[in-house]
Amino acid sequence: MCYLNEKKENKMKIIITENQFNILSEQNLKEFLYKFWDSQKRQGEEPSLDDIIFQVTDITKNNTEDHRLIRPIWYEYNGGYDKLLKKIDEEFLDKKFYLEGRENLKMDFKVNNIESYGVDVYGGMVDVGCRILGGTVDGYVYNEETEESEMVPNMDIRDQYAELEYDTGDFDDFLKSEIYKFLDNKFEIYGVPFYIEIN
Fold first, then answer.
1. Residues 127 and 182 in one domain
2. Is there a single domain that holds both residue 57 and residue 149?
3. Is residue 10 part of a domain?
4. Is the dihedral of CA 118, 122, 123, 125 positive or negative?
């Protein structure tokens, strides 16, 4: 007599809720991120929210998913959001900066206010209030005879505001954009998203 030894694989099905799945996924994400940042430290680098993280996780930097998943882990890794916010205050608040930018911009400004929205709402978004201390830019003046705007090199920023009168929105946006680009590299080590306000 010949007996066939048939082995049947016993597969167990585990049913979990979507919430439980998300917790498991977030735990894996946390383990990956901690290993990544520890590796940066071992290589003598400052841990950062490197673009590689966003490529590997397929999460877009600075979007809702980033603020909900990655930023809280980053803040925890660095001792908490409040600790990072305190470091930002120490480095930037009441400090003067000089920048050169597009349109021949040369400008001094001071960070005079840093206000946090809190971690729960926007992943730790902060408003960085800046006051323009002075500077020059290639400005524009309206010529009534030709009814066209003419470029004026190295125009004082205050004169450009006066020329624009109430239509300063685009110029404000330009200055905010230049300040943001200037501060972005400096803020990068803290990994805290920020907006620029001119006051």
1. yes
2. no
3. no
4. negative
Amino acid identity at 13: K
What would the DSSP string read from start to end of 17-68? -HHHHHHHHHHHHHHHHHHHHHHHHHTTPPP---HHHHHHHT--TTSHHIII
Range of the domain at 164: 93-198
123 assigned to some structural domain: yes
Q: What is the pLDDT along the chain (199 residues), one digit of tens a residue?
A: 343 444 444 443 435 355 554 554 778 899 999 999 999 999 999 999 988 888 888 889 888 889 888 999 999 999 999 999 999 999 999 999 999 999 999 999 999 999 997 776 566 789 999 999 999 999 999 888 888 889 999 999 999 999 998 889 999 999 999 999 999 988 889 999 999 999 8
Residue carrying the six token digits 């908490």: 80
Residue 64 within a domain: yes
Q: Determine contact, residues 67/123, Cβ cutoff 8 Å.
A: yes
| Cα-Cα-Cα-Cα dihedral sign, residues 126, 132, 138, 140 | positive
